[in-house]
Specification:
The complex is a heterodimer. By secondary structure, chain A is α/β, with parallel strands linked by helices. Chain A is built from 20 helices and 19 strands. In chain A, the strands form six sheets. Chain A has a six-stranded mixed sheet with strand order 2-1-3-4-5-6, covered by helices on one side. In chain A, helix 9 packs parallel to helix 10, helix 13 packs parallel to helix 14 and helix 14 packs parallel to helix 15. Chain A starts with a helix and ends in a 30-residue tail after the last helix. Chain B is α+β, with helices and mostly antiparallel strands. In chain B, strand 8 and strand 9 form a beta hairpin. Chain B starts with a strand and ends in a 14-residue tail after the last strand. The chains are: A alpha/beta, B alpha+beta. The interface between A and B is medium-sized, with 28 and 31 residues.
């Protein structure tokens, strides 16, 4: 049996076998009975990364609540196991029952970052499932995908049977119900897909035709039949307190990236940073109540035994009842040695105070994200913080005893000049001076300035923008580096080549599918892993498929261009995005929409869906 | 403050879980079971525990030990009952006693361990044990600087055959002197000119001892 072979013969030969055994605490093991639907939840990266992802935790337990569904997990096998699998013909298997993934009804991938796409192809290949959706038979699983990157589904259109737009809690059950009905009436794969396309939020790319203009831009994306929706509306949960949230979570044996209880305090973000895709696609903001969160926290501590609760969201300091929540959590768990953590910190001295309270003795480091080095550019991107906000915040941190500060920036932002870049180094210098002012010297202080490269993303006000060329990004990196002096200040930056590929894929159309496939055929996978990223192969793949990457990354789009993702409706109007882009050029900021409604479109998205402050 | 000494098993289901990961799993189980444990001082408070020598990855065990300091009293029976309700499958508490809170660490009192080795031996080689044990046995051990030859004969206290697939080894296991049963098996197969296949071996730690009378760390009044 496959299971025995894996456990006794294969696992002793691989690094970290605990990645593959799948019997962790709170994992769900069910026997397969006739009529049950088997769902493989696939994360296209290794176990330690996939198990840190909140979506998998929610949907895994949600699906397994149903008696007619078996949901099991599958991750990308690391290269050592992959090699053995290829040599010995071991198919990709699920963790819980070690069943071949090919035997499932659904294989659902979550799309968290573009550089995981070659892993999807690799996993399909290892599973023995045809890569191209068009070549799959009635016996193959339905390969589906969701998650933030699905908001531009087209680069993967060739490989995915259908995409699910938006939040999965409700739609996933509808999908299984439709599938069961279709199966009972003996429908073919094609007929099943046709039925799936009627579910709101489901996008079946094979039922939509993409045409191009002579200049290579998209002319249109049209459904093949008039009964199909021309726009696919994302799914959105109305009330988080009324929505399923697991009261148990799998507790990995291996240390994962986020090895703690993840307590999701709200969805959406009201800040409106113009570069941020998450801030646009997850609208509107919806908060959980303190009572609900406390109840979940108690249950989760009791069922997992974790010693840390992380309050997760896109911007946790913005939670309306943050103080009340943190105080209640500390009261409840202090004696048990359970700590509280905030994954991101607002640039505001009063939040440093809260942070200090929950961190107590673990003064490992404190991180802020000013994103840009000058007030002008921060206004352009609508990052509503000032230099004084930052200095006050680090000053508070220094007074509490922090000596390690990390500041995140982006380079290559629209309208950026060298003065903005020099501003990054100067901001670092000001932080040093503040420490000196307080402590008389800078002994023991480390300030890290970290610069990622801006990637224009679909569904954001900057979706029309060109990305800086790699040469330009390299030049900008060295402009900053040349201004960094002394031991206390450090400068790190991201690999511009990765940002370039991300820019190509994230705003890609269906022609990018060919490139992905070619890159994978030539050996690419684990592209987000330094030791396996091979840029030259990617460039060869572009050449061989005749696709010009600069067309996608380095081209400024005209105002009326049809985008490959225009048929995906996030609820935020394209007109609003254009307005925000224009305000950016003028350096005009836009209010946080908790103050008043900025009419982004989401307020009219769906009957019964409430925005912040709406009655 | 009370200190409790606990004996637990590590079964097949968790044989690929490393020692550090097992420690974390136990810490979490303590919290789930609502055990009133004492916390360590310092930046990252943890339950105050100490463990018997780590078991190699892939082995199973009938006798692993840890000591735990309590912040409130709890009877060993209650402790076992509560823990066994929440431990992951493959781990079980089989014994627990209160010990002197000033006792020496498990690592310093344990000095030998007994193993059962399951391996598809060819029958005839099992008659060669006496010859194998007669002289010094030298093995090559990998170190950071290369390989080192060491004599292991004195580290083998007992080597017996149970049946044609199972042998039993009683070996030194202290901070200053210890030998992994895998090395002994390898040396024995080597001696007989038989090739060793790692995926065929299945090793169980049967017990850990504090003296040559085979007393275990659970011996009353040991500290």
């Amino acid at each position: 049996m496959l299971r025995d072979k894996i456990l006794n013969d294969i696992l002793p030969r691989v690094e970290k076998p605990a990645r593959y055994i799948g019997n962790e605490l709170n994992s769900v093991h069910k026997d397969f009975n006739e009529g049950m639907v088997r769902f493989a939840f696939a994360f296209p990266d290794i176990y330690e990364i996939g198990m840190s992802h909140l979506g998998i935790k929610i949907l895994y337990h949600l699906l397994n609540e149903r008696e007619d569904i078996i949901c099991e997990r599958v991750f990308a096998p690391w290269v050592d196991l992959e090699k053995i699998m290829k040599e010995e013909g071991i198919p990709l298997f699920s963790l819980e029952s070690m069943t071949p993934v090919k035997d499932f009804d659904f294989v659902g991938f979550t799309l968290q970052y573009e550089m995981s796409y070659t892993n999807i192809l690799n996993m399909l290949f290892l599973a023995g499932i045809p890569l191209d959706a068009a070549e799959r038979s009635d016996r193959d699983p339905l390969v589906i995908a969701g998650g933030p990157c699905a908001y531009n589904p087209e680069p993967l259109a060739q490989f995915i049977d259908f995409f699910v737009m938006g939040e999965g809690e409700e739609v996933i059950g509808e999908i299984v119900d439709v599938y069961k009905k279709c199966k009972e009436s003996g429908m073919s794969r094609k007929e099943i897909l046709r039925n799936m396309a009627n579910i709101e939020g489901v996008y079946v790319p094979s039922l939509y035709v993409m045409t191009y203009n002579e200049d290579g831009t998209v002319r249109s994306v049209e459904p093949v039949s008039r009964e199909l929706p021309s726009k696919i509306k994302k799914r959105v949960i109305r009330d988080l307190d009324e929505t399923y949230y697991p009261d148990k979570m799998i507790v990995p044996y291996l240390q994962t990236v986020h090895d703690r209880i993840m307590l999701e305090i709200f969805r959406g973000c009201t800040r409106g940073c113009r570069f941020c895709q998450a801030g646009m696609i997850y609208r509107p903001i919806r908060e959980r109540s303190v009572e609900n969160l406390m109840e979940l926290a108690k249950k989760l501590v009791a069922s997992t035994g974790y010693d840390e609760i992380s309050l997760v969201s896109l911007s946790s300091c913005d939670y309306t009842f943050l103080n009340e929540l943190i105080e209640s959590l500390i009261d409840e768990f202090k004696e048990k040695g359970v700590g509280i953590s905030l994954p991101s910190l607002r640039i505001d001295a009063s939040y440093v105070d809260i942070f200090n309270k929950i961190e107590e003795v673990r003064k490992s480091g404190i991180t802020f994200a000013p994103e840009a080095g000058s007030q002008r550019l921060r206004d352009v991107i609508n990052k509503n913080v000032t230099e004084d906000d930052l200095v006050n915040a680090v000053s508070a941190a220094f007074k509490f005893g922090w000596r390690t500060v990390k500041l995140y920036f982006m380079i290559g932002l629209p309208t950026e000049t060298d003065a903005d870049l020099i501003g990054i180094a100067e901001l670092g210098e000001r932080v040093l001076q503040e420490y000196k002012r307080l402590h008389g010297n800078i002994r023991g202080l480390t300030v890290t300035l970290s610069a990622s490269s801006f990637v224009p993303k679909p569904h954001t006000p900057f979706q029309w923008e060109a990305q800086d060329s790699m040469d330009e990004l390299h030049r900008k990196q060295s402009v900053i580096r040349s201004k960094i002096k002394g031991q206390a200040l450090r400068f790190t930056y991201h690999d511009a080549r990765l940002s370039f590929l991300e820019a190509v894929i994230s705003r890609g159309d269906r022609r990018i599918s060919m490139v992905l496939k070619r890159a994978w055929e030539k050996g690419c996978r684990f592209d987000s892993w330094n030791e396996y990223f091979n840029f030259d192969i990617w460039m060869d793949a572009f050449k061989e498929t005749g696709v010009d990457p600069d067309f996608y990354a380095g081209r400024k789009r005209s105002d009326d261009e049809v985008f490959p993702w225009d048929h995906i409706d996030t609820g935020v109007d394209k007109e609003f995005l254009r307005r925000e882009r224009d305000r950016a050029y003028k350096g005009r900021t836009t209010f946080d929409c908790r103050k008043f409604c900025i009419k982004c479109g989401i307020e009219d998205f769906e009957e019964g869906l409430k925005c912040y402050g709406q009655d | 403050m009370d200190r409790i000494r606990v004996k637990y098993t590590k079964g097949k289901e968790v044989r690929y879980i490393s020692h550090l990961d097992i420690i974390r799993a136990l810490e979490r189980a303590l919290r789930r079971a609502d055990i009133p444990f004492a916390l360590t001082e310092g930046f990252n408070p943890k339950p105050r525990m100490n463990f018997s020598p780590p078991l190699s990855l892939g082995y199973i065990s009938c006798a692993e030990y840890f000591d735990l300091d309590m912040s409130k009293s709890i009877t060993p029976e209650k402790f076992m009952e509560r823990m066994n309700l929440v431990l992951p499958s493959g781990m079980m508490i089989v014994d627990a006693v209160l010990i002197n809170p000033k006792s020496k660490s498990l690592n310093s009192i344990i000095n030998s361990a007994e193993y059962e080795i399951n391996y598809p031996f060819k029958k005839d080689i099992l008659f060669e044990i006496d010859r194998f044990l007669k002289d010094e046995i030298v093995i090559e051990k990998k170190t950071k600087k290369g390989t080192k030859s060491i004599g292991i004969r004195t580290l083998i206290y007992e080597f017996s055959v149970r049946d044609d697939k199972n042998i039993k080894l009683w070996l030194a296991s202290s901070p200053s002197e210890s030998i992994n049963p895998m090395y002994v098996l390898k040396a024995y197969l080597d001696f007989n000119g038989v090739e060793f296949k790692e995926t065929d071996v299945f090793i169980t730690r049967i017990e850990q001892y504090i003296d040559r009378e085979k007393n275990t760390p659970m011996l009353v009044g040991v500290n």
